């Protein structure tokens, strides 16, 4: 018998400014939700043309970017560059150090670029690994229909209803699903026991949980599940005026200390100081940062 997970909390992600002219709804990495290993931060971003995230460093974490609308260019100091478009993902492992820029493309209709960025902690022994990128294109993501076609699941990572995702894309084990439920549809998604899990709602109203515990939430909420249990249930009322869409994420908690200072995520205060020194001194992974400027970031320099 599947044991449904109860909801620990559900809260609205408030919009704030971030980067250069970007608008962000941050839910993980706020006073409402910290120490939720392996997750460090979750941003639902809206970047208008002329805004973005110019040259900046990272060390000690992975970032997973899922583009919901538009296109974003990226470029780093190792000469990696590319573009992710609507429905694509980029998995970036910062490891011992990376410096990069993420800038939106100008959409023909002038609309904003919208997406999700999740920061995932790296196991301590991998924090000094070489940086790497992995892109996952929208066309490569297995998509299944559940509940007589009333539920659509994009299996970005993990397994759902007998279908596996394409490949392991992150060092820290994480399952990610993009689910859309039509009015009257419902789904029960099994999750690994002991993993931390949350759902972030993108549109409509979705009811999570079962029985008396069931809670209905609107858009832009983070729904945090208890660790106990092995499945998450979600449904949309048959009277609903629109589909419910949410991202469901689960990850293996890491038993380690997290000391975060901006883009550096390490295991001790000393390592954070060292990261700042290495970055300023172009050492220990940041050698290529010396004198480097991204081409795409130059549009921001006024």
From TrEMBL:
<dbReference type="InterPro" id="IPR008778">
    <property type="entry name" value="Pirin_C_dom"/>
</dbReference>
<feature type="binding site">
    <location>
        <position position="56"/>
    </location>
    <ligand>
        <name>Fe cation</name>
    </ligand>
</feature>
<dbReference type="Pfam" id="PF05726">
    <property type="entry name" value="Pirin_C"/>
</dbReference>
<feature type="domain" description="Pirin C-terminal">
    <location>
        <begin position="177"/>
        <end position="282"/>
    </location>
</feature>
<protein>
    <recommendedName>
        <fullName>Pirin</fullName>
    </recommendedName>
</protein>
<feature type="binding site">
    <location>
        <position position="100"/>
    </location>
    <ligand>
        <name>Fe cation</name>
    </ligand>
</feature>
<dbReference type="GO" id="GO:0046872">
    <property type="term" value="F:metal ion binding"/>
</dbReference>
<dbReference type="InterPro" id="IPR003829">
    <property type="entry name" value="Pirin_N_dom"/>
</dbReference>
<feature type="domain" description="Pirin N-terminal">
    <location>
        <begin position="22"/>
        <end position="120"/>
    </location>
</feature>
<dbReference type="Pfam" id="PF02678">
    <property type="entry name" value="Pirin"/>
</dbReference>
<dbReference type="InterPro" id="IPR012093">
    <property type="entry name" value="Pirin"/>
</dbReference>
<dbReference type="InterPro" id="IPR011051">
    <property type="entry name" value="RmlC_Cupin_sf"/>
</dbReference>
<keyword id="KW-0479">Metal-binding</keyword>
<feature type="binding site">
    <location>
        <position position="102"/>
    </location>
    <ligand>
        <name>Fe cation</name>
    </ligand>
</feature>
<comment type="similarity">
    <text>Belongs to the pirin family.</text>
</comment>
<keyword id="KW-0408">Iron</keyword>
<feature type="binding site">
    <location>
        <position position="58"/>
    </location>
    <ligand>
        <name>Fe cation</name>
    </ligand>
</feature>
<dbReference type="InterPro" id="IPR014710">
    <property type="entry name" value="RmlC-like_jellyroll"/>
</dbReference>
């Amino acid at each position: 018998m599947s044991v449904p997970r109860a909801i620990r909390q559900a809260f609205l992600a408030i919009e704030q400014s971030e980067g250069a002219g970007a608008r962000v709804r941050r839910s993980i990495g706020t006073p409402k939700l910290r120490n939720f290993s392996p997750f460090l931060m979750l941003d639902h971003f809206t970047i208008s043309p002329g805004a973005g995230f110019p040259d900046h460093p990272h060390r000690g974490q992975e970032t997973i970017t899922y583009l919901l609308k538009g296109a974003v260019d990226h470029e780093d100091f190792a000469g990696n560059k590319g573009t992710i478009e609507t429905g694509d993902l980029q998995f970036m492992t910062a490891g011992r150090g990376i410096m990069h820029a993420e800038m939106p493309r100008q959409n023909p209709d002038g609309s904003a670029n919208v997406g999700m960025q999740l920061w995932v902690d790296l196991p301590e022994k991998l924090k000094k690994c070489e940086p790497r990128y992995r892109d996952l294109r929208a066309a490569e993501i297995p998509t299944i229909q559940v509940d007589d076609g009333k539920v659509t699941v994009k299996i970005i990572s993990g397994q759902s209803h007998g279908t596996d995702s394409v490949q392991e894309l992150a060092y820290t084990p994480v399952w990610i699903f993009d689910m859309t439920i039509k009015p009257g549809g419902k789904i029960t998604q099994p999750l690994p026991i002991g993993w931390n899990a949350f759902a972030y709602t993108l549109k409509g109203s979705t009811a999570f949980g079962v029985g008396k515990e069931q809670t209905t939430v609107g858009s832009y909420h983070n729904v945090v599940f208890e660790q106990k249990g092995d499945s998450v249930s979600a449904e949309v009322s048959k009277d609903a005026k629109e589909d419910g869409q949410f991202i469901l994420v689960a990850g293996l908690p890491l038993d380690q200390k997290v000391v975060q200072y901006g883009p550096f995520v390490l295991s001790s205060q000393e390592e954070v100081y060292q990261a700042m020194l290495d970055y300023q001194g172009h050492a220990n992974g940041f050698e290529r940062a010396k004198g480097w400027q991204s081409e795409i970031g130059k549009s921001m320099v006024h």
